[in-house]
Design brief:
2 helices; 124 residues
Length: 124
């Protein structure tokens, strides 16, 4: 294992001496590292902002759905009440119709009797 460390040390010394001879290569490496770090930070910031925006929108959608759900429950109750009233009104209308028919028949009977009485009272 000592041989591997010595070989790694030789490679590192070679790289450092090469970078000393070419400062432009060192500057490019440092610039690339800074660029990658900046892009990573920018992506992290954008991700946090986007996540926060989605959370706010999800909360708003949840509030809207809960309001709509409550409105739907109220609407269903109103519709049930209206249906019950319609059924009761239909029953009343049927009763009124039957009563009107009986009254109509009674009036016809009375008119028929009156005509018969008038005929029998008239001199022939």
């Amino acid at each position: 294992m000592a041989g591997a460390v010595e070989e790694g040390s030789k490679v590192a010394q070679g790289v450092i001496s090469g970078l000393k001879d070419q400062p432009l290569s060192l500057a490019l490496i440092v610039l690339n590292i800074v660029f990658v770090a900046f892009i990573s930070w920018l992506a992290y910031t954008i991700n946090n902002r986007t996540t926060q925006q989605y959370k706010v929108k999800d909360d708003l959608v949840e509030q809207l759905v809960s309001k709509v759900g409550a409105s739907m429950v109220d609407l269903k109750s109103d519709v049930r009440d209206a249906a019950t009233r319609i059924q009761a009104n239909a029953a009343l209308a049927s009763q009124v119709n039957q009563t009107l028919e009986r009254i109509g028949k009674t009036i016809e009977d009375h008119e028929h009797r009156i005509r018969e009485l008038e005929r029998t009272r008239q001199p022939q």
